[in-house]
Amino acid sequence: MDAPVDGPDTRLLFKSLGFPDLRVHRSFNHFDFTRPSRRILVIGSMGSGKTEFSARVWRDAEVARSKTGAAADSTRTDGADRRVVFFIRSALDRARFPQYPADALPYRSGYVRCGPNIAEIADSFDLERVIADNPGAGTWIVDEASFYEERLAYVVEEASRRRGLTFIFPSLILNFRREIFNTTARLLLDVATDVFPLTAYCEHPECIADSFYTYRYYTVGGAECPALYFDPLIVIGGDRTVQDPREPNYCTRCDEHHRLPGKEYAFLVLKPAGEAASKGDVRPLADELAALKGDMGRSALHRDFTSRYADRGDGAAIMMNSLLASCIAEKALLFLFTEQNLVSADLFARLVRDLELDRDYLRRRLADCRRDAALGAP
Fold it and tell me: Nearest 5°: phi and psi at 170?
């Protein structure tokens, strides 16, 4: 017999994995505005309904605000009313859903309008200022909270405990690599009081299984090309299907159909080359990047893929397709620079110059992770 979703065995499993004591919910009921000091993670793959969950909270608040007397009193703490909802959107994400009004909380099948109760922030300091400027708001929806710096987790925990504020985080916890998105995501798990896990149907055309994972891929000549493991971690956008070998598409996939080629290469070949470069021996890295850019067939990546995937069926052929995407050398260098911190800014700029890498692509990806100063002036 399966253990209940919130039973002692499930809690013990979470503890053994290093997670805090959480209440895990099976489904969504009308939101409870009477409970103070909640920090609620709404997690799931792209398309699982995280932002729609937030829109339902907003609509529930409109009904709850009609209540009076003891019912209304039960939703207030320290001058804040949890029936007053405020939506926080990332300043990095302005390009999403351009067809909707500026004050919209948009999701894939619609939107709700927030009026003045919406703000864009760049970091946790901006969030502190917005909270201070809106002392009557008791429920705060912080979209894609994992995109902010780690400090945000403790800003919201302190505000929640001190004033009884509720924070809702519709956020990716796992990235396209099926790993914890970043340190901020890890800390949000630490400070959370509740988790609502959502799933979607696997978007593979021949599958209807539950999907937990976001799948990143490129479309080149009509072919599905899975993103390599060392593809840039943060790419702003992704809500529109594109046929551009430099820009990714996203869908949600189950275990069987989530493909992630290149992980072994990243740690067997690419990272060691970066480590050697960090100690002064740049030649192995420069040679591999040059091959990835101009002669894929002589690269260690191509040799690795040939040994793993060549002539091994349709699934393996799709893995080989990942080599069709553009800017693979640029992605490898970005991985070593922005994530592994093995390539210095000076060496990064020198390799870009010497190998004549795609500066426009690099600038856009560096801007996505707020490292755009690395290439200097355009």
Answer: -75, 105
Contact 107, 198 (CB under 8 A): no
User: Residue 99: how many CB atoms within 10 A of its CB?
Assistant: 7
pTM over 0.85: no
- Tokens 């509740």 belong to 194
Low-confidence ranges of the chain (pLDDT < 70): 1-7, 17, 22-28, 92-97, 237-240, 313-314, 377-378
Q: Does some domain include residue 2?
A: no
pLDDT tens-digit series, residues 291-324: 999 999 999 999 999 999 977 766 788 999 999 9
What's the total number of domains in the chain? 2
Q: Nearest CA to 137 among 195, 71, 57? A: 57
Cα–Cα nearest to 155, from 131, 135, 120, 172: 131
312 and 166 together in one domain: no
Tokens of residue 13, six digits = 């499993």
Name the residue range of residue 41's domain.
8-198
For residue 333, give both structure tokens: 């260098």
CA 107 – CA 178 distance, rounded (Å): 23
